Amino acid sequence: MSAKDLSTKNKNPKPVDNRKYIRLNVVFPVEFQFIDPETSGSISEIKQGFTRDIGKGGICLEVNNLEEGLEQVIKDGKAKLDIRLHVPLSRPETKAIAKIAWHEKIKSGYPNKYLLGLSFVQIDPKDSKRIYFHATRVILTPAIIAVFFFFLILGLAYFYSIDFKTQSENRKLVEELSRLSTKKSELEKRLMDLDKENEAVGCKIVLNEDKIEKYKTQIKDLEKIVGDAKKKDRLIAYLKEDKEKAKEVIKHVLYQRARFNRKMGKLGKENIYLQDRVGKLSNQRISTEDNLKELLSSFNTVEEKNISGMYKWIKNHQNRRTGLVMSYEGDKNLEEWAFTYDQSLACQCFTLMKDQDDAKEILDFYKNRAETSEGAFANAYDSHTGKIVEYNVHSGPNIWLGIAIAQYTKKFKDEAYLSVAENIGRWLILLQKQDKDFGIRGGPKFEWFSTEHNLDAYAFFGMLYKITLDDAYLEAQNRTLEWLKKNSFNRLECRINRGKGDATIATDTFAWAIAALGPQLLKEYNMDPDQIMDFAETNCLVTTDYIRQDGENVKVTGFDFGKYEHLARGGIVSTEWTSQMVVSFRIMADYYKGNSEFNKASYYNKKSDFYLSEIEKMVISSPSKIGQGQGCLPYATQDDVDTGHGWRVSHGTRTGSTAGTAYTIFAKYKYNPLALE
Predict the structure, then answer these.
(1) Among 38, 285, 427, 448, which lies 20 to 30 A Cα-Cα from 472?
(2) Looking at the whole model, is its pTM more than 0.85?
């Protein structure tokens, strides 16, 4: 129905339409309120209507179910309208004051329906142009979409050809890393075996030399006895009985001397063999070192490219709507889940790589959008919607989020998110004060005390103190240390307990004790860091089968979640926890290098290099379009198995893990997340 037709159907016909702008059939939601034209005071509640037509000078508004009193106001034409237009895809609403140019009642009874012709009295010219532009755009959209889809199809064809090429190249790169890592780890293992054998041979030589010296001493003693016996034999020759006894002694001593001489001869021959073996071992070691150097010339380039690919894999899985990074790629049960702990690791990866914008996207979510529960952040959110998917609130993930903020603040000298970290810090202090020993529970609704959480808290409080110089954080850190000394240090076995009253072996407590407290502080409190690392290798190190993407079965040596023989599943290697141990081996190496104990520093560096090579055997090509064939790490050598700590490994034989991938990057670049660089 045209505007002219409508004007004939009411008692106050519309004036001739002399507007220079055409009307467009576009529907926008509109909120409005009748106001007194003189006082501008409201004379009705807020109502809602929808546009029928719209132009630069005014709108045609459809309104339903007006009260009888408001119908009379419309007929009298004595009111204006305070309106709010909600233009799609436009963030701020459009405000305007309008008068009623004409009206028509197109439906009577309940509900009634009116058409109101409104003329703008007061509106920002920019807003007027904006709504008219959007209305015009809606008319032109079908044609634009058709053109867009034509070029989109052309673009997609080009993109998929390029994408196929990129994925193919990335997969080849991953395969090359796996092949070279296997060879590299074999050479590194050979070096360590040679060093071990060489050390054992050296010890044997020293032991034999000690025995020779001992036998020489015993021979001298025996010779003295012989001399004494001969003297006695001469003195008591007249006593037959004594003479016979002396002869027996002499006979026995001569026999013993001969026996010792034979042993000395045998040991001498053995030492000649061992000296020759040392020479051969030395030659083998030189040859192995040469082979390793030759391999490293090509391996380092391939490794750097793959580490770069792993970082891109993490970036590619960051949702641009929420800023969150998907925790697992390939696990249908955890699809789109973003664990808060994993977000901390991803954020620290971005910080490590000086990628401030991507780090900010994660932190913006927790500062501005994330729902909280029990005064803190939930364990996991949907990476697409930002909604909570795991409502449990644990201390650990919140601490790690605070650690990520502290690392970001220090790196970029940006305190925009420091308030979030301090809120977490104050929340932890409240939890701490609820325990007589000042331990931090697993969360507000949990009664258990984890060593892992308290190690994290010790590091986090220290970071907050360094940034803010607030003594409250230093006091909290000292209280946490006292709790750790009392409840976590197992001095009898020279290791760390899993928690208060819980002597279960958990590999990450060993790694994080080194990373959070440091070797020097552990020694000061009678906890030998060397023994802690040795205990972890003795009890948690496993060698197990892993089937690579190409179907090849390889042996991988790394760290399980605990003492694996206690579990029916057998041993599994965790990429995240093994990488944590690699970081700790690096810390030990740096500590001894700083103390000029270069042999020990070399020992720990060799360990870290070997275990990192073993983990790199497990790199897989991302199976998704988002991943583009980039390399990433699965969480473990097996999927869907019990860790022994109350949770299971993710599903999917080719599930990429943000935690495993991020911690491998940390291990490569010698980054300790529990220390403020």
Answers:
(1) 448
(2) no
